[in-house]
Every structure is written in C-alpha cells, then in structure tokens.
Write a structure and sequence with these properties.
With 169 residues, the chain is of the alpha+beta class. The chain has four helices and seven strands; from the N terminus they run αββββαβαββα. α2 runs antiparallel to α4.
Amino acid sequence: MSEHNKRIFLAICIIVPFALYCYVYYSQMIRNAPYRFSDFESIVLKYGEGDSLVNRFDSQSGVYQYLNRSDSLVTDTVRLREDDMRHLHGKAAQLGFWNLPEDMTSPVSQSPQNNTERPVPRFYLQFNYKEKSKTVTLDADFDGNPKMRETAKSVIDEVIRVINDARDR
C-alpha cells in the first residue's frame, strides 16, 4: 500500500466516524431542545403596579388591554406576525430567558414607610409551547442578581416594543 493510500485510509477511519457521531449526537440535542420555535404557540404579558396587572396582552387571542395617559382602560386587537414571534423567541433565547427563575419578586417589607409608598411595577411574562411554558414574574425593584434582572427586563421591554410596533401598523 502506498503512503498516499495509507493517509486516505487513516482519514476515512478517523474523520468519517467522528463526523457521523457528531451528526447523531447533535441532531438529537437539537431535536430535544427544551424550547423550540416549531413548538412555540403564544406569549402572555401582564404588567401593572402591585398585584393589579391591568395591562394585558395575549398573542393567541390578540387582545391587548392597557391604560392610556388619561387612565382609561383601552381594549384593542393586536396580531403579531410570525416574524415578530420568531424575533421574540430568538431574543429570549439569545438573552438566556429560559435560565431565569420563575419568581423574581421582592419580598414585602413590613416597615411603615414602604406601606405609604406607591406600589412597585410588576411584570408577568409567559412563553407558551406545545408541551410546556416558561413564566417569569418580575418586580421593578427586584434586588437579586442584577444580570438576571436586566435579562428579564430586556426581554419584557422587547415584547412591549414589538407589541407597540404591531399596534401602530
């Protein structure tokens, strides 16, 4: 056997099995990914002050209910395009939304000065998939990990921005 044939044989014996192994292993990982866009169904966003989450949006029904500047409740129908949903799913995956804890609320303090203050803004965001969902509840004054708070706030701000852009269309 010539030197050239030995190298080809060696390459086939090492590279081809490695390539097949990578394909089988990573294709299974991608197929079993926890949150895939192909399973993505809807987004639910609720926000307001304290426990009264008056502002609501559900992408499945398209109902968007919000308080306008004169504090009157407005109900509108807003439909998100598939591109909007793909963008929000990608943004959540990019920022690591799936790794956030479900409860990012601040503990209620019993001090008298906190009882007289205005309630803190609270956000509830839920990504619904065929078999599961990811929910995060965030208080604006959450004093946990600042990176996690910024990630959750970034995803929520992006959802609100996309909803408002869709409403303006």
